[in-house]
Amino acid sequence: MSTPAGTTPDEQPDVIETEHPDAPPPLDSEVAQVVAPDRDIEVAVGDNLVEIRDLTVTFGGLTALDSVSFDIRRGEILGLIGPNGAGKTTCFNAMTGVYKPSAGSVELEGHNLGGRKQHVITRLGLARTFQNIRLFGQMTALENVAVGLDARHKTSVPGAVFRSPRHRREEQDTIERGMALLEFVGIADKARDLARNLPYGYQRRLEIARALATEPKLLCLDEPAAGFNPAEKDELMALIRTIRDDGYTVLLIEHDMRLVMGVTDRIVVLEFGKKIAEGSPQEIREDPKVIAAYLGEESDDGAA
Question: Collapsing DSSP states into helix, strand and coil, what is residue 253?
Fold first, then answer.
């Protein structure tokens, strides 16, 4: 890893060690401190950060999500899995304001998110990536991260026009924190490259960095390993663990079961818009209903 600005080889900062054999190189504690969320979170680690109750989404006569309830605890990595069409992304969209729930509620630290606009939900602390990458292709990697950082800025339009002291401070903070975030996800050397020119895996990492830039209380990752080879998936697992270890809570949608089982603390399983199971990776791996959902085995009553 390169020497941070302002240090010499004899003055290297402490590093954060990792217990995982497939983790990326140790992260400078200086970088980790810059990237760590700098905002108050009302609930303690291990308590419910998000509570989803009877969440229902319908499109005409189709029920895409049917009275789904589960909690997300602060400091955990929760997996949300299920066969294609199970309602996973619909759940994400209902949580983040893309879809308006037909019934039920989503609460972040006890605050109901229902009826709020997407940018308001982001400011409250819920950020996401998308199944299909949505970067600004004509902007550099650093500029893409700066878009996320702007969610936390307080400069007014006149302040930006006349370059007030606050605006200049926030501008400098954008560069410093943006570079730290790019280093955190392993693509700092691509800061000045256009997003559209980055390799696919780097674009995925950039989207995660941009979401982290909003300082989320909950980071929602929608199939971040899509299109990755096995080595890239191992690197992604290590990155997700590092994100959690740096103080974030993660909700993960993913089809790759090895990745899900290897990185999550708990898992919620959906099928045809309903929750059919919830528990530890080991419990989910052995649950007959989950096995039936993925393999098409018959249920106890003989129905396929």
Answer: strand
Q: 116-167 pLDDT, tens per residue?
A: 999 899 989 999 998 788 898 999 999 999 988 876 555 555 555 545 666 5
Q: Assess if residue 1 is contained within a domain.
A: no
Residues linked to residue 80 through DSSP beta bridges, in sequence order = 253, 268
On whether residue 4 sits in a domain, the answer given is no
Note whether 18 and 121 are same-domain residues: yes
Statement to judge: residues 153 and 121 lie in one domain: no
How many domains in the chain?
Answer: 2
Q: Does residue 25 lie in a domain region? A: yes
Same domain assignment for residues 186 and 55: no
Burial 141-172 (b: 16+ CB within 10 A, else e): bbbbbbbbbeebbebeeebeeeeeeebeebee
Residue-range definition of the domain harbouring residue 235: 13-125+220-298
**For strand 218-222 and strand 249-253, is the pairing parallel, antiparallel, or unpaired?**
parallel
Answering whether pTM is above 0.70, one says: yes
205-264 pLDDT tens trace? 999 999 999 989 999 999 999 888 899 999 999 999 999 998 899 999 998 889 999 999
Closest to 255 in 3D by CA, of 13, 79, 108: 79
The pair of three-digit structure tokens given for residue 30, joined into one six-digit string? 């200086």
